[in-house]
Amino acid sequence: xxxxxxxxxxxxxxxxxxxxxxxxxxxxxxxxxxxxxxxxxxxxxxxxxxxxxxxxxxxxxxxxxxxxxxxxxxxxxxxxxxxxxxxxxxxxxxxxxxxxxxxxxxxxxxxxxxxxxxxxxxxxxxxxxxxxxxxxxxxxxxxxxxxxxxxxxxxxxxxxxxxxxxxxxxxxxxxxxxxxxxxxxxxxxxxxxxxxxxxxxxxxxxxxxxxxxxxxxxxxxxxxxxxxxxxxxxxxxxxxxxxxxxxxxxxxxxxxxxxxxxxxxxxxxxxxxxxxxxxxxxxxxxxxxxxxxxxxxxxxxxxxxxxxxxxxxxxxxxxxxxxxxxxxxxxxxxxxxxxxxxxxxxxxxxxxxxxxxxxxxxxxxxxxxxxxxxxxxxxxxxxxxxxxxxxxxxxxxxxxxxxxxxxxxxxxxxxxxxxxxxxxxx
Length: 426
Prior knowledge:
Maf protein, Molybdenum Cofactor Biosythetic Enzyme, Chain A, six-stranded mixed sheet, 3 domains, Alpha-Beta Plaits, globular
């Protein structure tokens, strides 16, 4: 099959909203070996939608459309697609009843405008939406060039994800013979892309450069290995690539699960060790604590944190000596160490993490330029670890990098691998 994706919404043409739905749909197509020919973003214009659909149906077999199925006047996806196909729209009583029941379940009256969401293009198959009021639609077409199909999905990301799994994937599987391509992802934190490239370069020669992708993000690298072909051959090749990449990258790999975050991995390690942690943050403003507590069940290992933005509060809440602050300044190794030890002591945890730095855009100096961050870890038995970093980017990026590297330091500590831990503890 050849496919196209169309994201609809005038907000996507501006600067405040990014189309991420196309990425989810692309992944589903890729798994089933469907060739993606085009992606388009359109505003809420019935005429533009109709013209684009007409044009695409001359070149592709499958069109996936997201957005524009809401109840407001600017939601005109149904109208545009109906116009492209020369079909009418009619109110579906069963769909309307389902929408009304959803509102009643939340003890709310259905506004009259929501009736628009029960309008169905003539001949369309209604696709249930278990998380929202806008059902999807599928139109099966017969054309001179062969069969074609159009899917209309809501634009709300979590609704789309559920409908991809429930509606699109089974439809694709029935036509593609099942999964045609698979990938595995290994995640690495705290290393530059070039360093990771050097580590795994020999795998290119073994498996082919086109089979392995290095994807760089903020404080994180993804190694993605992809295999195609019959299921049995694909599984063997994928397993071989995964093991080889893991061996080359070593303990810099924090997970082989694409859905895992670094904070989840750290949380799992803390739980397994029966250990607890507390945080003391300055420039990150509680971001490290937020990430740790964003994981369900984090109360098992996270006891608390403090944000100390002034010298006085560092002394009052964490016991950082005033003379230490006067001599070295807040952005320094001694203060980061004292903050980590203070958090560990104040909350009675096995570990404490301290972060202090200059996130910018102002406040830097020749000695301590913007992006300078000190991260320290302390243990209840008196051990200390410290790293000084200089992170690039704006304030938000510096703060994120700092929280990411603090988590990576804690992960390495918890691994219990002497090669990882001894390099940290001083």
